[in-house]
Design a protein that fits this description.
Shape: globular
Radius of gyration: 21 Å
Protein name: BON domain-containing protein
CATH class of the largest domain: Alpha Beta
Number of strands: 7
Structural class: alpha/beta
Number of domains: 2
InterPro entries: BON_dom (IPR007055), Lipoprotein_DolP (IPR051686), Transpt-assoc_nodulatn_dom_bac (IPR014004)
CATH topology of the largest domain: GMP Synthetase, Chain A, domain 3
Keywords: Signal
């Protein structure tokens, strides 16, 4: 009898957890939750960019209520698994949905996987139109690179892009960190120029 009660109790708990999870995914996020998700996304992107196994991939990272979805292409199954593991290590992640497609570069399958990502879609449309890279994509890419770099990560640097010209503002902890931030921005694909007059070095 005790075993039956325990079984029924376990079932009830499992069903309750499932219902709570479904409700959490369907419930609109508050402003605080949205900020948390954005932070998780940036953290995952930084980890992917900093790791040699995944830094060359076009991976779209989307986070909702702590659930991270990875889309895009990977060279090998091992690289795909590495991307999932890196994403799972980011603070605040409760689940990783690894939807990366394993396909070698320059294949049709890989191209389809890459253009399924947000950045891939932007690049494809810009290439077809003969225009430059989208400003929003550049801003996101620069922010991710700054966060991934050991010398400048954690600094309060604001990034804004207009007409493919990046403006950096805020405070860098040292002259070296300031120079590195400018270097990273200039090296980003599609950037036509960098304005850093408002990026200052913190005083001792």
């Amino acid at each position: 009898m005790n075993a039956l009660k325990a079984s029924l109790l376990a079932t009830a708990i499992a069903l309750g957890f499932g219902a709570a999870t479904a409700q959490a995914e369907d419930t609109p996020r508050t402003a605080g939750q949205a900020i948390d998700d954005a932070t998780i996304t940036a953290s995952v992107k930084a980890k992917l960019l900093a790791d040699d196994r995944t830094k060359g991939f076009d991976v779209n990272v989307d986070t909702r209520n702590g659930i991270v979805t990875l889309q895009g292409g990977a060279d090998t199954q091992a690289a795909k698994l590495a991307a999932g593991q890196l994403a799972g290590q980011a603070e605040g992640v409760v689940l990783v949905k690894n939807e990366l497609v394993v396909a070698t570069p320059d294949t049709e399958a890989r191209q389809d996987a890459n253009t399924a990502t947000l950045s891939g879609e932007v690049r494809e449309k810009m290439d077809e139109a003969g225009d430059g890279i989208d400003d929003a994509w550049i801003t996101s890419k620069v922010k991710t690179q700054l966060l991934a770099d050991d010398q400048v990560k954690g600094t309060q640097i604001n990034v804004d892009t207009k007409g493919n010209v990046v403006t950096l503002a805020g405070t860098a902890p040292s002259a070296e960190a300031r120079a590195k931030a400018i270097e990273l921005a200039k090296a980003t694909r599609g950037v036509r120029g960098v304005v850093a007059t408002e990026l200052r070095v913190a005083k001792d």
